[in-house]
């Protein structure tokens, strides 16, 4: 099925460990995003890639890095996980920027717990 | 002031009634506005977008936009139990078209 695929779906990390969250879309979308969702705080933008070859910081980039590997794939890396990074992470993609009227398609999410 | 504000709810509406969800935003330059629905434990899905002042209808959903008042709303007619979910308002920043700011969501419960 067409859409956004995220892996893994669940992960438990120890403080200080590193990991990479993978995201791939097969809709030929230009823009891709990483959000985190915490109770009562809504979705907050971590990083985004407006087009292949570009990445930019969102609202909460500290502690994260991203790579736009090609048009389909956009990965999020936690170099040294902290308990404050316990959250649900969503990858999303869109044909163009939201400011120009393009809505997002979200992946199913990764539930990350850092102990 | 939050950039995008929503009443967290829960909003309880009887089945068959109209559910009214509200959202205010602070960026006067914003041009596009979105409503997403998120079922518990699932990812958000886009249900409505609106760009011009006035109403936009799609089935049982109507989005309303008033840019002068910086207010956008979502009406759900003939509410069904399957409409029980959290509804997220999303507004791109005018200064950065790729940065969509989400409200914290309104939890809607349709009671039979």
Short description:
The complex is a heterodimer of chains A (115) and B (112). Chain A is mainly beta and 115 residues long. Chain A contains no helices and eleven strands.
What's the helix and strand layout?
The complex is a heterodimer of chains A (115) and B (112).
Chain A: E1 4-7, E2 10-13, E3 19-25, E4 31-38, E5 42-49, E6 56-57, E7 64-68, E8 74-78, E9 87-94, E10 105-106, E11 110-114
Parallel strand pairs in A: 2-11
Antiparallel strand pairs in A: 1-3, 3-8, 4-5, 4-9, 5-6, 7-8, 9-10, 9-11
Chain B: E1 4-5, E2 11-14, E3 19-25, E4 33-38, E5 45-50, E6 54-58, E7 61-66, E8 71-76, E9 85-92, E10 100-102, E11 106-111
Parallel strand pairs in B: 2-11
Antiparallel strand pairs in B: 1-3, 3-8, 4-5, 4-9, 6-7, 7-8, 9-10, 9-11
Describe the structure.
The complex is a heterodimer of chains A (115) and B (112). Chain A is an all-beta fold. Chain A has strands spanning 4-7, 10-13, 19-25, 31-38, 42-49, 56-57, 64-68, 74-78, 87-94, 105-106, 110-114. In chain A, strands 2, 4, 5, 6, 9, 10 and 11 form a 7-stranded mixed β-sheet that branches. Chain A has a 4-stranded antiparallel β-sheet with strand order 1-3-8-7, with no helix packed on it. In chain A, strand 7 and strand 8 form a beta hairpin. The model of chain A has no long low-confidence stretch (mean pLDDT 94). Chain B is mainly beta. Chain B is built from no helices and 11 strands. Chain B has strands at residues 4-5, 11-14, 19-25, 33-38, 45-50, 54-58, 61-66, 71-76, 85-92, 100-102, 106-111. In chain B, strands 2, 4, 5, 9, 10 and 11 form a 6-stranded mixed β-sheet that branches. In chain B, strands 1-3-8-7-6 form a 5-stranded antiparallel β-sheet, with no helix packed on it. The radius of gyration of chain B is 13 Å and the shape is globular. The termini of chain B are far apart. Classes of the chains: A mainly beta (115), B mainly beta (112). The interface between A and B is medium-sized, with 27 and 29 residues.
